């Protein structure tokens, strides 16, 4: 098991290593793809920007930085406002045709600025001028300060884009600056065309909010993925749904890393697997040309399913590696297991040889070389290899009287080309004589010459000794059986009960000798069975065979050789072996016992009491008085529906009955533990009347008792009536305190055994003293009598009413809950309130109820009920209060 675990662990770690290598290769390939994607996008973007810069330079050098254009602006700083309007108008008219043609180069705007950074003329918004751009257009401020051209991305008051800003100098006089720009929409369209990709553009909210005119902010919408960015509406209005889903998933799964990447301001990208396709998403940073801070990103989404094919190939390769590893490790495991099994088998073989005392030898006839197993040495009393194995040494330790037999067996087997088996004796190293059995098989060449002999030698000494011991034991057993007084036999299952074996007791019991009855030589056993019992015996034997019953006891008569009738008990056992079925049994002479029983039965029949013989479970005998009282004719008729007389005991708490006997107990043993006064049972006779019997028990045999039932019905009835009188209140016939004291423990135990509560209520007649004072004590007594009658009719069968004293009563109720107690008492209270009897005054009662708590003194229960009664009295009477 340990080695198997090591192989499994090795396979696991090798697979883990291969998996790590493959996943590392996949990650490296992913990184290469991501880096290549970055390069392609950056180069494409820079190429497009350079192309736009060339277009812008052409316009600047050929149209803007010319004498005609700059001469218009020459006097702008010395002119009045009205004159500046004229200059603005002249400049507009001079360049409007060129501006309109700029769209051919996808350049978006043309904007002139004064050297103080004021906007002078926006060709895209001619009426919007005069605002100072120093704080929002740093490219304009840069050119006006350093009089050098600059190009790069910058957000404007109206549009964002890639700006190309140039200085204007005329006659060594600095006039201001001019700019052209290309919109991000145009750049994005060119990128989309060149890369065949899905694109999106986001710009920081802070840049837009601080720069763009308020009325122009409708050009932007908030980014749903990152709240710090805007989308430009014209670019992202028709954004690809796949891109949106991929970006959302990435930012949700990698919130920390995604924020870190965005704040880094560097280009970054990542792989995604979405709807069975691989994608690379690249964030290309757009930096402000002056601050060199990243203010926007172009997002590029490219499908790269070539990675999918690559991953599939690598996983296929991994699967092949794992399969090959499994094959190699399994192959190595099988080799190791085979070696282990061979080692174990060799070890087991040696142990088996040792246990069975069986060794083997091999003789190479050609090489004249004999080899013995270790156990052969042990059988001869030597340690393995203690001397050289040879035929001479073998003969040396063979018993002298058996050498010739062994040699002859070997020579004959070679001559006849057969195997041989021979039993002989050897003399061990320490002189002990052992019995061995030798077997040999020869191998012959094509010429019939023996070339090899392979044999075994088995130590039979213990077997031989055991056989001798068995033989001796058998002789002792047969001697013992022959002296047993009971007849032990084995017979065939046939009509004659043919005796196969019988001991000497057959002659003592029947008078016939063994040889006369064995194998039916003179008489058969069936022929000596009493003619009146033979049918019964055959019937029981047939039932035994039919039901495959293994053992039965029969009592029947046989006729002895001298004609005497002998009663026997035959304990018959059915024996089934592989080939035959037969009977074995023990026959005991019970004639003397039968005679004694007959005398006992006759004596019992003369008794005036009912007398039975019983085991407590089954009735064996009953006298005439038993049959007269119960109306049965025979014991067999009684046993049809009953087993013992205890089945007829009436279940009454005043008498002993089977409810006091547990399942595995014998009622005979239990009743004997009671005092003689309590050994009384009630049995209903054939006339329907129940009689009380005093029970007397005497042991007859080991498991049989003589039980006498003396009728004490008259005396018992008088005692019951007297006991009833002592437990009843003379006036109301309700139970009294003595009844309560004698029975409350039994009632509590009974209720608990039925999973019910012992409920107790104190009942008091309201204003009873006034009734006595007004109407007299005779009326008071009538009210008490009628109250008991009303409660008796209203209460349940299990409820018990006890007169506690004066007008106070205690009631015991078997209930399932406190709510059940309240319902029962409220029903009685209401009935009393609504009852009107003759001319007696109407009465009401107050009730205080409670439940008995486990193992508490009953006086505590009574006290709690009394306290509840007091509360009922104090709160207006005619109430039920529980506590």
Automatic annotation (TrEMBL):
The keyword Transport does not apply. GO terms for molecular function: diguanylate cyclase activity. Residues 420-472, 552-602 form the PAC domain. It catalyses: 2 GTP = 3',3'-c-di-GMP + 2 diphosphate. The chain crosses the membrane at residues 6-26, 311-333. Residues 345-417, 473-548 form the PAS domain. The keyword Transmembrane applies. PANTHER family: DIGUANYLATE CYCLASE DGCM-RELATED (PTHR45138:SF9), REGULATORY COMPONENTS OF SENSORY TRANSDUCTION SYSTEM (PTHR45138). This is diguanylate cyclase.
């Amino acid at each position: 098991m340990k080695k198997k675990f090591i192989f499994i662990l090795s396979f696991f770690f090798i697979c883990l290593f291969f998996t790590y290598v493959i996943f590392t290769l996949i990650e490296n390939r992913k990184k290469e793809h991501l880096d290549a994607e970055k390069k392609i996008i950056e180069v494409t973007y820079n190429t497009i920007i350079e192309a736009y810069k060339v277009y812008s330079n052409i316009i600047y050098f050929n149209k803007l930085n010319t004498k005609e254009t700059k001469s218009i602006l020459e006097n702008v700083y010395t002119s009045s406002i009205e004159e500046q309007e004229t200059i603005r108008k002249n400049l507009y008219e001079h360049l409007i045709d060129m501006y309109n043609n700029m769209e051919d180069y996808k350049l978006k705007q043309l904007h002139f600025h004064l050297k103080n950074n004021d906007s002078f003329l926006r060709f895209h918004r001619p009426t919007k001028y005069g605002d100072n751009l120093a704080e929002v257009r740093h490219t304009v401020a840069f050119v006006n300060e350093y009089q050098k051209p600059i190009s790069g991305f910058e957000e404007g008051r109206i549009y964002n884009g890639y700006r190309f800003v140039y200085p204007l100098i005329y006659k060594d006089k600095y006039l201001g600056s001019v700019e052209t720009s290309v919109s991000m929409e145009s750049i994005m369209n060119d990128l989309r065309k060149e890369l065949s990709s899905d694109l999106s553009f986001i710009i920081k909210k802070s840049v837009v909010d601080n720069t763009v005119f308020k009325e122009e902010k409708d050009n932007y919408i908030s980014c749903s993925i990152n709240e710090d960015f805007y989308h430009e509406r014209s670019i992202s209005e028709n954004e690809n749904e796949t891109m949106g889903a991929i970006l959302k998933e990435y930012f949700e799964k990698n919130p920390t890393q995604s924020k870190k990447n965005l704040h880094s301001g560097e280009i970054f990208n990542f792989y995604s697997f979405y709807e069975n396709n691989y994608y690379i998403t690249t964030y290309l940073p757009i930096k402000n040309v002056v601050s060199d801070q990243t203010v926007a990103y172009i997002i590029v989404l490219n499908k790269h399913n070539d990675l999918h094919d690559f991953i599939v190939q690598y996983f296929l390769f991994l699967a092949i590696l794992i399969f090959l590893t499994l094959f190699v490790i399994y192959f190595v495991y099988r080799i190791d297991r085979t070696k282990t099994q061979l080692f174990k088998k060799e070890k087991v073989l040696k142990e088996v040889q040792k246990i069975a005392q069986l060794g083997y030898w091999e003789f190479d006839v050609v090489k004249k070389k004999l080899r013995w197993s270790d156990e052969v040495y042990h059988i001869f009393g030597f340690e393995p290899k203690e001397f050289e194995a040879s035929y001479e040494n073998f003969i040396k330790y063979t018993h002298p009287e058996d050498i010739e037999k062994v040699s002859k067996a070997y020579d004959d087997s070679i001559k006849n080309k057969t195997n041989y088996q021979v039993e002989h004796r050897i003399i061990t190293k320490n002189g002990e004589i052992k019995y061995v059995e030798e077997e040999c098989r020869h191998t012959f060449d094509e010429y019939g010459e023996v070339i090899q002999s392979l044999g075994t030698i088995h130590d039979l000494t213990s077997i031989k000794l055991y056989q001798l011991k068995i033989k001796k034991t058998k002789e002792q057993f047969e001697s013992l059986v022959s002296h047993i007084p009971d007849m032990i036999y084995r017979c065939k299952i046939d009509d004659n009960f043919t005796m196969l074996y019988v001991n000497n007791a057959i002659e003592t019991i029947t008078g016939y000798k063994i040889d006369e009855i064995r194998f039916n030589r003179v008489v058969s056993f069936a022929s000596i069975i009493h003619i009146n019992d033979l049918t019964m015996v055959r019937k029981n034997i047939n039932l035994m065979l039919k039901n495959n019953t293994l053992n039965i006891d029969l009592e029947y008569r046989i006729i002895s050789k001298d004609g005497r009738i002998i009663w026997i008990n035959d304990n018959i056992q059915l024996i089934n072996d592989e080939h035959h079925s037969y009977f074995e049994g023990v026959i005991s002479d019970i004639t003397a016992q039968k005679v004694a029983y007959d005398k006992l039965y006759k004596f019992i029949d003369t008794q005036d009491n009912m007398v039975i013989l019983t085991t407590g479970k089954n009735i064996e005998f009953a006298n005439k008085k038993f049959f007269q009282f119960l109306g049965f004719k025979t014991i067999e008729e009684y046993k049809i529906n009953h087993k013992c007389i205890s089945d007829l005991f009436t279940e009454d708490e005043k008498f002993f009955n089977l409810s006091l006997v547990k399942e595995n107990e014998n009622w005979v043993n239990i009743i004997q533990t009671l005092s003689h006064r309590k050994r009384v049972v009630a049995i209903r006779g054939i006339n329907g009347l129940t009689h009380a019997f005093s029970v007397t028990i005497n042991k007859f045999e080991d498991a049989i008792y003589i039980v006498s039932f003396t009728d004490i019905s008259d005396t018992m009835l008088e005692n019951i009536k007297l006991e009833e009188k002592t437990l009843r209140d003379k006036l109301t016939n309700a139970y009294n305190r003595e009844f309560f004291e004698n029975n409350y423990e039994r009632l509590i135990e009974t209720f608990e055994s039925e999973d019910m509560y012992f409920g107790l209520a104190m009942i008091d007649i309201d204003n009873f003293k006034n009734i006595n004072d007004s109407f007299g004590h005779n009326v008071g007594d009538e009210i008490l009598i009628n109250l008991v009658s009303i409660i008796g009719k209203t209460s349940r069968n299990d409820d018990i009413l006890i007169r506690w004293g004066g007008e106070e009563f205690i009631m015991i109720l078997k209930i399932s809950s406190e709510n059940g107690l309240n319902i029962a008492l409220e029903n009685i209270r209401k009935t009393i309130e609504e009852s009107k009897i003759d001319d007696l005054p109407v009465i009401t009662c107050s009730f205080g109820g409670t439940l008995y708590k486990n193992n508490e003194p009953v006086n505590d229960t009574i006290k709690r009920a009394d306290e509840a009664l007091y509360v009922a009295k104090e709160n207006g009477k005619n109430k039920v209060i529980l506590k």
